[in-house]
């Protein structure tokens, strides 16, 4: 498994914010590209040779793959999981399918790309007004009609329209990742995820009720089981609070693209909990389990470098207050540069080394 770094602590926030924002911003570019090649998609006869058949297959996978990636990505940002299976698995393998089809398609089309780029200057094309814009002559690509209608827009105008659309989407998307006062500008971000003012008043993804957390799961009977190296310790919440407490200022960043500002977390270092079961000299990876009863990510695996980081905590409080149930009371994991889905809430068991 890839050992995701913990420095800088805002790394995943930046990485996923750019990923999601760029994906949204590129939607007008995608639509413009598909619009420009629509004639090619319906060329007849569909297959004239073996090489063309391979190219057509790569085109089918290319267009299907990119539409799948954008559609599932937008639905994920809006927390609408209407597709079967795990979004993360589907989106991951969909990306590899798209990349493979893209490489094959480029290999087939690179000679045409080179000829097209050599045939005329981009600057001259962009300087041509609509009144003097002429369609390209028909060629073997099948992308140009032999009887074009009079142009209604220059190439510069078309490019400007696509660019303006992307800038508008950037303006109404980026705030959810940047945070601060710009968060209110994120019109396309999912809303209703902030519980209100106060120490626990920052965005959440899933509520305790939404994943089946019951009162008895997090009530006075809650216990934390710490295992590893053939040892086991069981703690009440009061006993966990009696352990040395540390603090760290860290954000939560989710795969949907949103992130919180830095919050002040306090609790027990994961490395100190590893020492409780005999890993004082070396902190191994840990398998974290939750009281969550439904939905994905009821557990998470953290690597040894994440456990060793002094900012990696089993958090009990945030911003000076006890965690709310929706933020993971009685205890949750918080690790720098870690995806939010792996900062497990409602933790009940930590297994260091063995099975981790």
From TrEMBL:
<keyword id="KW-0812">Transmembrane</keyword>
<protein>
    <recommendedName>
        <fullName>Oxidoreductase molybdopterin-binding domain-containing protein</fullName>
    </recommendedName>
</protein>
<dbReference type="InterPro" id="IPR036374">
    <property type="entry name" value="OxRdtase_Mopterin-bd_sf"/>
</dbReference>
<dbReference type="InterPro" id="IPR000572">
    <property type="entry name" value="OxRdtase_Mopterin-bd_dom"/>
</dbReference>
<dbReference type="GO" id="GO:0016491">
    <property type="term" value="F:oxidoreductase activity"/>
</dbReference>
<dbReference type="Pfam" id="PF00174">
    <property type="entry name" value="Oxidored_molyb"/>
</dbReference>
<keyword id="KW-1133">Transmembrane helix</keyword>
<feature type="domain" description="Oxidoreductase molybdopterin-binding">
    <location>
        <begin position="221"/>
        <end position="353"/>
    </location>
</feature>
<feature type="transmembrane region" description="Helical">
    <location>
        <begin position="85"/>
        <end position="108"/>
    </location>
</feature>
<keyword id="KW-0472">Membrane</keyword>
<feature type="transmembrane region" description="Helical">
    <location>
        <begin position="158"/>
        <end position="178"/>
    </location>
</feature>
<dbReference type="InterPro" id="IPR008335">
    <property type="entry name" value="Mopterin_OxRdtase_euk"/>
</dbReference>
<feature type="transmembrane region" description="Helical">
    <location>
        <begin position="20"/>
        <end position="38"/>
    </location>
</feature>
<feature type="transmembrane region" description="Helical">
    <location>
        <begin position="59"/>
        <end position="79"/>
    </location>
</feature>
<feature type="region of interest" description="Disordered">
    <location>
        <begin position="125"/>
        <end position="149"/>
    </location>
</feature>
